[in-house]
Amino acid sequence: MGSLRPEEAVARASGYPHAVLSYVGEDGYPFSIAGEFVADADRRRVEMGPLPSTPREGQTVNLTFSHIHPTEGGYDQRRYVSLWGRAEAGGGRVSVAVERASGWDEAETPFFEYCERGVPRGHEYFEGVGQGPRLGAGWLFFLATRLPFLTATIVPVALGGAVAASHGVWNWGLFWLTLAGASCIHLGLNIANDVFDDASGADAANLTPTPFSGGSRVIQYGLVGRRTMALSSLLFYLVGMGVGVYLAESRGRWLYLLGALGIALSVSYTAPPIRLVDRGVGEIAVGLGFGPITTLGAYFVQAQTLHWEAAYVSIPVAIFIALVLYVNEIPDREGDSAAGKRTLVVRWSRRRVVGAYALAASAAYLLIAAGALSGVSPPWTLAALATAPIARRVWRDLGLHYERAYELMPAIQSNIGLHLFTGLLILAGYLTTIIF
Amino acid sequence: MKRPIGVLPPEVETLLERALVAELTVIDAGGRPITYPLIPFYDGRRIYMTSSVLFSRKLHHIKANPKVAVALTDPVALRSEPFRRATIQGVAHVDDHDLHTGWEEILPLWRAKEPVIDYYLKRRFGIPLFFERAVIEIEPVRAFLWEAGDTTLPPKVFELAGAV
Fold it and tell me: What ipTM was assigned to the predicted interfaces of this complex?
């Protein structure tokens, strides 16, 4: 429920078909009665009647105007306005001079944002009754690690392995070990990102989180403490590094360099004092980490050498994962800006942000086409161009819904799918070449 | 008109069973009324409403002053033919002994009125605090019924026998 200026509230109220007048009766019970009304926004006054009973002269009353639209199995279009003022009663009529008002319209403040604004009140209530929020361990792990984003690691690891397989080397055990190590580093990064965004206040300042942006929010919701999150992140990093050391010792010490680069980017992305994310290079860091570094690392584990083809084919994947981060930053931009997180989206104008998306996606497709047509990558990888309509739709929706975080959600979801499907189609191109 | 405790007139019961939204009015610390649109549920004895901890101010008010009113007014939300309006005064109790699962006891009533709730429950992890909820149990003491929804006329008043 947000405060409204009385004039504005009365003007809004005039659009409702009836009012509900409530006042406290002599017996101490509230009494409510609905009826037709006349609203005068200029005079900040609402009149009702005739009514069979009226409040006492000068009594504080509440007038509520609400609307809901029933749908199949539920409802939408929720909105209401609540006004308070002193009653002037006479002849069965009531006139209220509105002194204060509040209301909610889900078309203006989407339900998720409305809920987010209530989080501090929720914590107060929990404290008062000596309870805390709960969530099953499985869901908590799913949320806190942001598990679905693991596709950002699976795609480049699989791609590096596929390039190696196309060169005639493949070992399933090494592949799974690579995937496990890289995944641990990724999950460690996701959790660390939440820890540092909580410490900086960026997540708390973000009132428009979506399922894809704004962090996992397990700390803000009181589901997991910051310290537990920090220890979990450390644990994932340690396991990931342990796997990395084993692979480097058994497959070749180039992996130390790639691993160190990956971890350095991962940590400095979000951790002070460097915080690449604050400097407008977070997107590039993520692209490098989940593109060439991971793909080359996965290739090296299999082939024990580096090959420029692995680096080349990883670049479109790098661009698309950078674009995932980039688009996810759009609904977060106000909170990010307030916390000093100067992402590209915070730095650039709307027009530039949307335009740069089109440029980057076009560059990725050009690289895919050029690689396949020049023989750098297999011709079957041209199949990845099939996702171009998704990129175009995302670009169009960014332009249409840039200012509305929750209307942007389908575009955000499609953009995540764009990275995954393009990566999988490049991968399929390699697998087709290997099999046939 | 006296009726046994907990038994509302059939016309009011029908409204409660069909209403997608009712207006719950509580009294704040200053003695002023505050009205909240909420989904009402009815099990034949008591009216139930739930409130997420995210919107818990009403729960504090009820704990301080349990006298409340539930109004059934909106022809669109009531989905009832013939159209009537009603207000039920009662004594409310906040059940918040288990905010995580306590409210699930009234889930069958909720599901019957708003089947789509199951869709959201499956995605509970996405808005976890929204599903940390207290139950507002209202024992009716008096009901007012306006036939044809015409509130310009005096309502039929039903005093519920043995009420608080």
Answer: 0.94
